[in-house]
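Changelog excerpt

This revision adds worked examples to the README so contributors can see how folded entries look when concatenated. The first example is reproduced verbatim below.
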Amino acid sequence: MIHPTAIVSSHARIGADVSIGPYSLIGEDVIIADGVEIAGHVVIEGPWEIGSGTIIYPFASIGLPPQDLKFKGEKTRLTLGKRNVIRENVTMNRGTAAGGSLTSIGDDNLIMTQCHVAHDCIVGSHNIMANGASLAGHVVMGDYIFIGAFTGVHQFCRIGNHAFIGAYSKIVKEALPYARTDGREAKCYGANTLGLRRRGFSKESIHQIQHAFHLLLTSKLNTSQALERIKAELSGLGEIDYLVEFIENSQRGVTK
């Protein structure tokens, strides 16, 4: 179903059971998988690939050139996985040659109204970005993350799996996995216990994660000392190993 007022490039590839609403614009090198719903007044440029079952609401602008002064028109890409929901006025930009030429979003994400995903971001799956949340360039997000409304994430930051970021936060260092991070000058407030329960983590796993955050945040140990204690007491547990690796691989420092 393509509305007669929509403009679809002859070089776009459209799957089965796709609907495109009135006055939408689908550019060259756009690949739309089966079952995608695109509302009216949506602008999509390529190269861009849209996974099956995705829904895009009015006035979204997807796959346009990056907002980067170093961009000189090179051919870069944006990929969007399956079953994503992209709400009104969302913007997502393609990558840059310097950043790997790719912006990538996984599966089953909810991107609410007026959110922005900048060039070269790598976003995992099962994430929620509330209204007005923005990712600057080169941000890396894991899975099962909630980012509160109007939060800004600085360039090159990482956000770990199962993190909760409060509304109106300013993230300038990396946000720890399994943690609650909040504030204009963001701080970490310990384990995201409620979120972990909702995701089906066992009581034992949650207790171990809480103990790791106690060592990191309230034990009066510095980060290196806390990591050594965590390794000695909790090493070999999957969630803890991921937390330790996340901190040790940080390039910008982590929010504590």
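The second example, added in the same revision:
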Amino acid sequence: MLQTARSGDGTRIVYEMLGEGPPLLLVHGSAALRGLWHALGYVDGLVSEHRVILPDLRGHGDSDKPHDERAYAMEHLVEDVLGVLDDAGVERAHYFGYSLGGRVGFALGARAPERLRSMVIGGGSHRPQHGALDRVLYPGFSDTIASDGIDAFLDQLAARFGAPPDPGVRAIFEGADPEALVAYFRAADRDPGVPEIVLRKIELPTLLFAGEHDAERLADSRSAAAAMPHARLEVVPGTNHLSALAATDAVLALVKPFIAGNVRQGQAGA
């Protein structure tokens, strides 16, 4: 069932909530939307054990899509997630975010750890993003979107990673608002990240994962795992930044026992 929350600045955030059990937030990556979790099979794999909450972050999916770069500061993205938790009546939830969702997870864990039970962060980074997205995706990708649109961006991305995205995934990306995405990406490039000294204070149980060939995000994940007191890192073999999340069975084999273990230790949310 689709529901609508309000972020701290009044931006309308659309989310979906399915199932029963300990609440679990699934937060998508850049240029994607909540439907990606359906397309890749994560909802089917998790909904029998969790109340799954799937927001579209601002600029994505059915949520509001401001064209002002200032609207995409990380503090606003964190408020998007907090607004969804408030609207859903969830005091504390388990968190699973990939890429952009992973960066939001680090910031959320630093700002409001009392709202979380545990964190799963895939392909994420706590570091300043200046130039990082160009390295992870390809140089000048936001200019491609601005001048030539989403299709051209996806074609360049496929060339960069040596394989086209799944047709269902491509269809999700093609529904994006190019002007909003460019505003988001340019704001993301200025994201200062979460300092290591702050990471060291995040006491939440945390599972980090990245693709074996996702060099930059794997290095960032190793750094975060070393800094955080209750974090561990897993590597998804044979995958890169584009394909790691699509390795659904391998990722769920890591995620499900991690969350279940925290539930058994009294971490169940309400």
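Reviewer comment on example two: The CA atoms of residues 2 and 16 lie 5 Å apart. The longest helix spans residues 248-267.
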